[in-house]
User: Fold these one by one.
Assistant:
Number 1:
Amino acid sequence: MEIHDENSEEIVTATKHRYDDLIGTHLHNKIQNNKCMELFLLNGDAERIGLMTKDFKINRKMDTVKFVAM
């Protein structure tokens, strides 16, 4: 799950497309003013999931990035 400013949508889309093979479900929701929350349900190689999470975390345009393993 990550939260970002609506103006950062292109960055999220570019990152998301690099990991399309992992994404089973993707939910996008406006949560307040110009903020969006993206929820990804992932399935696949743990190393690639870690890389996707890292790509979101190192991007300064993201307000919040949380990873929950189940």
Note: Helices lie at 9-18, 46-57.
Number 2:
Amino acid sequence: MTQITNPKQDKKYDLEERCLKFAKRINIYVKNLPKNIPNIENGKQLVRSAGSVGVNYIEANEALSRKDFAIRIKISRKEARESEFWLELAEPLREFEQERAALLQEALELRKIFGAILEKTK
């Protein structure tokens, strides 16, 4: 028996998973930041914004209207941009510079994906 899948639905879940992985990587990154006042405060904001990317995407997928969907996608895009900001402010140990660069790239890619989704909803 052949199982029929909805490609659009598969993409939704792939992006949810990608957002979750991003937030988990951010959590690990923040745990490894040097413990000083700026990093503690910036790390808190980074964890919040990175988690919010995925949470708002999940809420977008449960939206009650097209307008609600677009608003949640805009918030996800905004939170991805905010994550970039906090990543730039945090001061990692030298051995985590590559991870910071990779996380910045992922935040940028997520922001672009959400921008493309917004364009398609117009």
Note: Residues 59-122 form one domain.
